[in-house]
Amino acid sequence: MQFSTGESYRDVWKELPSDWLEGLNIKTQVASSIYDTEVNKFKVKCGGSLEMWEESGWIDKQDPYGWFMWYCRYYQGRRSEDDERQIGRWSRCAGLKGRWRQNLVFRASSKFDDASVSPVVRQTLQHWGYELNKHDYDLGVKRVKK
Q1: Which of 15, 122, 136, 142 is deepest in the core (most CB within 10 A)?
Q2: How many CA atoms lie within 13 A of 7 on its CB side?
Q3: Distance between CA atoms of 75 and 33, rounded to whole angstroms?
Q4: Tens digits of residue pLDDT in 122-132
């Protein structure tokens, strides 16, 4: 796949620990260049195209696969000058006061785990490594009612 960095990337997933990949179909769930909603937990499309992400300046050359690549490397101990930006992006999306997390709490009514309520928002949060749970829902409801 050719990126705006001017480089092609292949098999970057191989840097991940093998136990993270156990039980996954590498061809369809890890290394596919085709967006397939069937591999998404909520079976919906969310997010923008690679071109949109690159043009928005959200893809950094050190992590050409974006936030997920940055997060995997951060989780494994790498620290970089991009950490503050990426942590801020996550917080604004899925953090306690995050846009999409709060959106889901507001829409979820009393069914925090009802997958039919806002599946696109749920998939967006899933892409950011977050899934609404009862505890977070209850905290969010208290914030919304204030």
Answers
A1: 122
A2: 10
A3: 24
A4: 999 999 999 99
Report how far residue 9's alpha carbon sits from residue 30's, in angstroms, rounded to the nearest whole number: 14
Among candidate residues 135, 137, 131, the one with its CA nearest the CA of residue 111: 137
Sign of the dihedral defined by the CA atoms of residues 133, 138, 140, 144, in that order: positive
Q: Of 32, 38, 90, 94, whose CA–CA distance to 65 is shortest?
A: 32
Question: What would the pLDDT profile of 8-53 be if each residue is shown by its tens digit?
Answer: 778 889 999 999 999 999 999 988 888 899 999 999 999 887 778 7
How many whole angstroms separate alpha carbon 34 and alpha carbon 85?
Answer: 28
Nearest to 66 by CA among 111, 136, 12, 115: 12
Rounded to the nearest 10 degrees, what angle do helices 99-108 and 119-127 cross at?
150
Higher pLDDT, 31 or 100: 100
Tell how many helices (H) and how many strands (E) occur in the chain. Answer: 7, 0
The token pair that represents 102 in the structure block: 């709060």
- Residue among 41, 54, 32, 13 nearest 129 (CA): 41
